[in-house]
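Service request form, structural biology core

Requester: graduate student, group of Dr. S.
Request type: structure prediction, single chain
Budget code: on file
Notes: please return the result as structure tokens.

Sequence provided:
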Amino acid sequence: RVVVKLKGMLNKLDNANNLNSILGIEGTASREYFSVFNRLIKDTVPFNFEKRNRRPPEDPVNALLSYGYTLLTKDIASVVQVVGFDPYIGYLHQSYYGRPALALDIMEEFRPIIIDSVVLKALNKGVITEKDFDYNLGGCFLNERGRKKFYRAYEERRHETVTHPVFGYRISYLRIFELQARFLAKVLQEELSEYKPFTVR
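Core staff response, request fulfilled:
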């Protein structure tokens, strides 16, 4: 049901002619996606995921997602600067003080591929356990032990190589981060007609 809905929302994007329409579709799609995220977590995992929450995350799964997205944002912001962009001026995310809007824009296509997959693997394989979290300030957070374990898993994932859908040779995800930023630069310089997000299928 959710897969069908998400495909329908992709089709709606073709007719979206302003930013508010695009963001509305994205928000609805995100809610649908996370409404079934818990189905990807094995029954043996002692954590339950009901919905996405943050600032602060209220449960271990949200704590993992938030920490992972923070790591990914940092990496994307770095490659955006290497390419020559200002990471704080974006297209879809609004530019607030201290918010790397462009990095957040580009990282969207990597959230499920990199972070969500790492979270699911760490949970389903028992890499992350109840001992890796602390509860304080009204939220749930990875403790030092948990952060180290998750970062190792993230490091492995971002250095994993895949066959690039455009170039046809194997390349690491970390390198693909930079390539996507360079693709955007070529679009702005009118060397490419449109920006193509990275997809694995």
